Every structure is written in structure tokens, then in C-alpha cells.
Amino acid sequence: QLLGKWIYLLGSSKYPPHLEELRSVKYATFFFHPGSHPDELNVTEIMRVNETCVTRNTSTIQVFRHNNTLMHVDGQVTSMAHLIRSSKDLLILQHINNGFPGLSLSARSLHVSKERLDEFRAQLACHGFADDEIF
User: Fold this and answer.
1) Run of H or E including 116
2) CA of 46: how far to CAs of 95, 114, 134, in Å?
3) How many domains does one find in the chain?
4) By three-state DSSP, how is residue 119 classified?
5) What is the pLDDT of residues 32-90, one digit of tens each?
């Protein structure tokens, strides 16, 4: 279900390095491709950071099915996320970064129903995020 194109829509984080990134990313899509084994995905990211377009093909996702956790590996840097909700068209992740909470919403298209947005906002509220902390 995770393979293919995803569009990053909304995110929030209390982790200072991610806050800086969230403020500078204007648009982001990412593609999951099959990796070297069933629980590995190769990632292509295409982002507009401020006024610069960036394409990266250097990272992978390790999938831990037993606990719905994903590990993003980009060189020597790793980050973890727990899959809160996944369907064929929606991906809500709880990011785990040195004890700082974070959440992101990605979808297959820019068009997400009001119910799905409300679901994400409810998750944000449960994790202590205010509306002005959503990027």
C-alpha cells in the first residue's frame, strides 16, 4: 500500500531541526519504490525549499511490520515514525525524534476530505499541538 507517489500536506514538530525544515519547505512529494527486500523501500524526494528545488534519491525506509514503525535512513542519519493511519490514499505518521513529538499528513493527491483533515487535527490536539504549530 505504501508504494508510489505521496504528497506531503501538513506537519508539526517540537524537534528544533524539523521546525526549521518545516518552515522552509514550500512543497514536497515523495515516491516509495521497492527496495532490496520486502521490508525496505527506496525513497525519491522532490521538494521546494524556499526558492530552491531539491531532488534526493539517497534514502531508504525500513518497515517494521510487527509494530507499524518506519525507520528513515539517509546516510548516517536515521529517524523513526509510527504509522498511525495508512490507507491507499492517506498516511498519518507520528515522528519520534529524541523525545520530541511530531506528526505529518501525506496523501496521494492535494484533495483530502474534511473528515480526514479533522482526523489529523484531532491527532495533533491529542499530541499537544496548537493550530499555529501546523505547517
Assistant:
1) helix 114-126
2) 20, 26, 21
3) 1
4) helix
5) 999 999 999 999 999 999 999 999 998 999 999 999 999 999 888 889 999 988 788 99
Sequence-ordered list of residues with C-beta below 8 angstroms from that of 92, at least 6 positions apart, any chain: 83, 84, 85, 86, 103, 104, 105, 119, 120, 123
Are 73 and 63 within 8 A, CB to CB? no
What pairs with residue 78 in β-bridges?
A: 73
Nearest to 12 by CA among 105, 108, 99: 105
List the grid coordinates of 116. Answer: 480526514
CATH number at residue 49: 2.40.128.20
**Pairing assessment for the beta strands 77-86 and 69-74 based on DSSP bridges:** antiparallel
Alpha-carbon distances of 115 from 74, 86, 109, 120, 121, rounded to whole Å: 33, 15, 15, 9, 10
**Domain housing 87:** 4-133
